Amino acid sequence: MYQLRRILQLRQQGYSKRAIAATLALARSTVDQYLATIESHFDSLDQALNWQDDQLHRLLAQPLTPKADRIGDLYERFPSFDAQLSKPGVTRFHLWSLYKQHNPDGLQYTQFCWRYQQWLQTQRTVMHIEHKAGDKLFVDFAGKRLTVIDATTNQPLTYEFFVAILGCSQLTYAVAMNSQRKEDFLAGLGNSLIFMGGVPAAIVPDNLKAAVQTANRYEPDLNETIQDFAAHYGTCIYPTRSRKPRDKALVEGAVNILYQRVYTALQDKPFHSLQELNQQIMHLVEAHNQQLFQGKTYSRRQRFETLEAAQLRPLPADSYELKEYRLAKVQVNSHVLLQPDKHYYSVPYRFVGQQLKLVYTQHTVEMYHQHERIAFHARCRLAYGYSTQPGHLPPQQQWVSQWSADFFRQQALQAGPWLARAIEQVLKRLEEPLHAYPQQVYRSCAGILSLVKKVEPDRLEKACERALYYGSVSYKILRGILDSELDRLPLPQTPTTTIPAHENIRGATAYQ
Asked: Which family is this protein grouped under (predicted)?
């Protein structure tokens, strides 16, 4: 989905299909088929970009079948052909015959020789690249680290030196950071974009682990976090080839210049904090940006403001927040475990037993199933705790999870005033010195409320009135009143303290 969105974004910006394929390291046929599918279903690219990932996933569920390539693996064979031609008896025709055995529809001998000759020439040349304004931002870490003396222990602490440079204007950004780990690298990238005041079309790192999961000459595998970073800023991550420093010669040269203009100036100044070191680096780098190019009448800063600032895309409203990813299985209690925090989060109960993708930041945790977000929680780091949303639980569990004194009072008020008084009488047991177990009291209230669906409202109201008259309210008493139909009888008169006159009663004088 990330690559598809990048194809649509680049197409929207006016890139040709060939340029898109080259930028994203994709086959031209793959780009053609993706765009053909999208254009056949949507009136505009904006409409397609507004769709959710899961909707686009279902639309493109059928695998793409790229067209056959007549060249095959010819260019991959050229380095070995070059070595074999030095052996006695090996000719170009012999090598072409071996190539045709594996690629029957491949190039003929004339084209084979011509392409081989062209390839030989490329091995002995250096390409001159004209950098377009707003096109690329080259980033790298310097080989030499910087040192800070810890103020408390008086021990030296080493820090990495991160450098970013725009291709056209060569405006440079540099900062010292703790490590080359993913979180530090992305923080440096984000701060460099803020420093530039915009976003270039592509960011060019080398194959460091913070960005590239598996290096490849043609299609390197980027880790999911760096892809999400690029999608947030609407740019592309375009790693260099392994062991090809000329691919990022601009930033390599910038590092060498900063060795002279920054490292040398820092040598005789002791620093006791990273913040203090970075303040001095910022001052020196800005002086470097203001200095005129050798033999030119303009500086990097002037060239940036004149040519490149307007070509950068605007920054998003919010800075990127680092995301981490985990896979977790939904347990039978409708919760998943975020292992780093050992905390459980609820998801809708219909996903019990399913494998989910957890995306979490410093403040939030999101759960995805087949590209669809099914749950969202504020992150909690309480070990072995539970974050539960009642709506995620099955209906019977939702009812129990809501039990409280206020809940039963509200439910009873909706049924009738005598029922509300009866529930209040039961809840008074919670206030007794030797009060009952709360869940038992709540269960009694739940039993009384269950009668609402079983008998007529008037009968239940009269049953509650009778129970309150006798001063004893419980589910069994109300059930007994209803079963014996005592609620249909009028309540007795207020009892008196005198014995009524009757012929069978002798009176007090009979005992004197």
From this structure: Belongs to the transposase IS21/IS408/IS1162 family.
